[in-house]
Amino acid sequence: MLIRTPSSWELPESAVTPEALYRQRSRRDFLRTLGLGAAALTLGSRSVLAATAGFPDQQNPAYNGTGLKPTPYNLVTSYNNFYEFGLNKDDPKDNANRGWNTDAWTLELAGLVRSPQKIDVNALVRQLGLEQRVYRHRCVEAWSMVVPWDGFPLAKLIALADPLPTAKYVKFTTFYDPSAAVGQRSNSLDWPYVEGLRLDEAMHPLAFIATGIYGKPLPNQNGAPLRLVVPWKYGFKGIKSIVKIELTKREPRNTWNVMAPSEYGFYANVNPTVDHPRWSQASERIIGGGIFSGRQPTLMFNGYEKEVAPLYKDLNLRVNF
């Protein structure tokens, strides 16, 4: 007789929330139900910037954000989803700056590559250079920002690893340090956080690795010192504080997809025609837009349809959400 052992995140039938109530709950509430609430540290905090090289850099004129209004720096750095450091939007700014050190930092390139290596982040920046790009940012929770990111194309980093012909996907892994990250003291998520892209997505000119914002090193709460930025996808694909990038043959399971596969897919492309099971994706709230700005319609692929739609021409986007 086969006896199935439930995973730690699975709810017993008796604990299932009625559908009507469930649909009213936010993603943060959903996590709290699963026990991811974390107590704050008792030490005082101060803002910390990762010591990355390459500043000051220059804006890439091809990505100058014409027609976009950047979200103020204080909002970009204080309204964050970084569950390793708490569930509330203002938790990461506090909890990620209580002595957590992101300088020095080593990135590992591994898997199906000809040039596996471990490299210091500052040395990496000096090798690849920096540029600034202004991108739209759309969260799966239906809010949005415009962020001037500083960093380098992900394709440059992938080329440095020199993928083998058998490599089809890219797996990203963040740090694991429960002594510093209060959220990681819970076992409700399968830490460390993992994300993935198809290799052709990773090589797309828009895919970017950020080391800064607004011409300054990336603050801890924004994912210092290395953060993935894929502007046509929902923000949870933008894994923060990356320690390892691995080329693989098979599609990696990303953390949110493992936790709730009916709500978070592997692709996570911004798509106003495919709603989240608990809320609409047709429109978005603009962070910093003021109380009278209302909502704005969400654009297909977050406004980058012309650039990235060919990547998915043979893919059913409703099935592969």
TrEMBL record:
Binding residues annotated for Mo-molybdopterin, in chain numbering: N80, Y83, E84, C139, T174, N222, R227, G238, I239, K240
Cofactor note: Binds 1 Mo-molybdopterin (Mo-MPT) cofactor per subunit.
Keyword Signal: yes
Post-translational events: Predicted to be exported by the Tat system. The position of the signal peptide cleavage has not been experimentally proven.
Oxidoreductase molybdopterin-binding domain boundaries: 101-256
Oligomeric form and interacting partners: Heterodimer of a catalytic subunit (MsrP) and a heme-binding subunit (MsrQ).
Function comment: Part of the MsrPQ system that repairs oxidized cell envelope proteins containing methionine sulfoxide residues (Met-O), using respiratory chain electrons. Thus protects these proteins from oxidative-stress damage caused by reactive species of oxygen and chlorine. MsrPQ is essential for the maintenance of envelope integrity under bleach stress, rescuing a wide series of structurally unrelated cell envelope proteins from methionine oxidation. The catalytic subunit MsrP is non-stereospecific, being able to reduce both (R-) and (S-) diastereoisomers of methionine sulfoxide.
HAMAP family in the record: MsrP (MF_01206)
Name of this protein: Protein-methionine-sulfoxide reductase catalytic subunit MsrP
Species the sequence originates in: Horticoccus luteus
